[in-house]
Amino acid sequence: MKKFLISGVAAISIMTFASVNAAADGGSTNPLLQTTLLPYGAIPFDKMTPALYEDAVKEGIKMQNQAVNAIVNQRSVPDFDNTIAALDRSGAELERAVLALSNVEHAVGDPEMMEVLTRVTSLLSEHEASIMLNQGLFDRIRQVYDNRDRFDLNPEQKRLLDETYKSFAQNGAALKGDDREKYRRLSAELSDLGVKFSQNVTNGMKDSARRLWVRKSQLDGVPASIVEAARHEAQAALEAEGKADDEDLFLFTVYQPSYTPFMKYVKDRALREQMYRLYNTRNTSGEFDNTPVLKDIANVRLEIAQLMGKDNFAEYQLQRTMAGNPENVYAMLNELKDAYQGPMRAEIEEIQEFARQTEGPDFVLMPWDYSFWADKLKSSKYAFNDEDMKPYFEINNTIKGVFGLATKLYGYTFKENKSLPGYHPDVTVYDVYGPDKKLLGLLLTDFYYRPGKAPGAWMTEFQTEVKDDEGNRTIPIISIVCNFTKPVGKNAVLLTPYEVETFLHEFGHALHGLSSQATYASLSGTNVYHDFVELFSQFNENYLTEQQFLDTFAKHYQTGKKMPKELLDKFIKSSQFGAAYACMRQLNFGFLDMAYHTQESPMRASSDIGAFEAEAIAPVQIFPAVEGCFISPSFGHIFSGGYAAGYYGYKWSEELDADAFAAFKEAGIFDKKTADKFHKMLESGGTVDPMELYIEFRGKKPTVDALLIRDGIKK
Q1: Catalytic residue positions?
Q2: If DSSP codes are grouped into helix, strand and coil, which group holds residue 537?
Q3: Residue 562 per-residue DSSP state
Q4: What distance in Å separates the CA atoms of residue 445 and residue 513, rounded to the nearest whole number?
Q5: N or C, which end of the chain is more exposed by having fewer CB within 10 Å?
Q6: pLDDT in tens, 342-381
């Protein structure tokens, strides 16, 4: 999932202080600011240009400044309504503009949009800092906070007051004199660096040097659908370059729909190594080199943390999380390391011994061998291959099935809305209705890979759910973006189990945003602690192994027959194969993230990234380091994606989701009573402390036991 953070520092950005229910046209002729132009506040993407996005951001900044000045300059004694709630409801127009610009730029990758985002980022950072460092505003917030016991506030209002005060304090408001200006400067610098890092990653993926041309003879054993997609990619590239087509040329890229099957199915070890190096040397040199950028980001973050009286950035960043501090993060990472390291080594040894039956006794498994030989061993042990399931995951049936999960659990229904435009022809818009048949929100889906689109998959929002003083609800507008292989001609689009899992994951995030019933934008939907936000996405993934769920949609695209139980049983058994490796791989990322953000002295320009990575991940090392191959320069999650000192949250949330799904396994995977209790967490957003929410749902704190059982580590 991708959330646009203006400064790259704030746990709650300026956007989360906005509420689009208060947005007005304000006489502007900019279509993005005319909120009544389309129903529900939907965005008229078909009328937008890069210049209009930029204009809307600048106009939004002016409008929020006016609203904040009105709060500061009023003569009324500060109270919750005239200060805290008023601030939360300010900036509606700016939120609308920033969300639209950042989301579309990320999904489309248009060079003009990139330039616009680059230009406005410094403006947004300065604007955020000007609000966070507004002494008059903070004085009013602090006065309300200090006198909070005198106000008759409901629990959500108390939560908003507490989070607002702590957010301002954490983002420089309590600083004095020169320190305030230093924080302002550092925030702006960090914001610019984050955008630069992100755009380098995107542009690096598009680099023509990051692709591999092969001949048909080199693709023996590669599934026909993958071969056909590579042929189509080659045709498009040759045509774009003005070259004659060659039917024996096939093109693979470092984008996941191409890279992942290449590494899994191509027999030629040298080609796999070549592709591995192309992928893992991204952004390490040349025009899009991120190594100096990431050092600057780490150093600026450290400087901000120490300015705020903390020893390191992780200590600073983890203040408002479930984990709370670096010690608790390391405790969780090490607990998992101790549980999974032995099984992981056994897995690697088993795969290597299996490969040696073909490659000879001296064969040593390398990272470019893992996917290929793991798949072969899995097929040998379980007579299963991911390709076996693809005929049952035709994309249109899968969309109905995944949407149907929300119908069975929460009573939601989805209806395509052809009257509202998307930001790209690939986008489909759906009206989402709640169990009361009232409109719950809008969902935009953007499933297919295209050149320029950022890699991976994510959920975003274009409009946040809020309520006005009369209880009228502004509906959320949510999007899901993936990179599935685009259909070639009239061929059916068949998804791998991994892609269905990805869809379920992002759909969980979408449901979190769509279900929100908060009053205030800062506490709405996915505006929760970052180590809680992945619970709802990862929870959904559990249904991929449930026959009762799959029977609702997983039918062979040609015969119409349901997925055989024998095939699912093989998948379930094989799904535990490699679970220890997968966990250790995630721990690699988690330890690396914490290593960057627990440093207490700046990185030097001459610092060796390879040596730094090797030391950081040594406790969870899987394969020997490969010279020139790094994680950090393309690690967008922590350097530009809002997960700094937070990547551990994936495993933290995985413990939560396994424990939560255990409740459904005990009562029934569609049990209404259990679903209603889980739905309350979906609706609550950040209005309640997440541990309180979870204990109310489960009746106890989560433990790691269910995760270990699910992964086959514990019987």
Answers
A1: 506
A2: helix
A3: B
A4: 14
A5: C
A6: 999 999 999 999 999 999 999 999 999 999 999 999 989 9
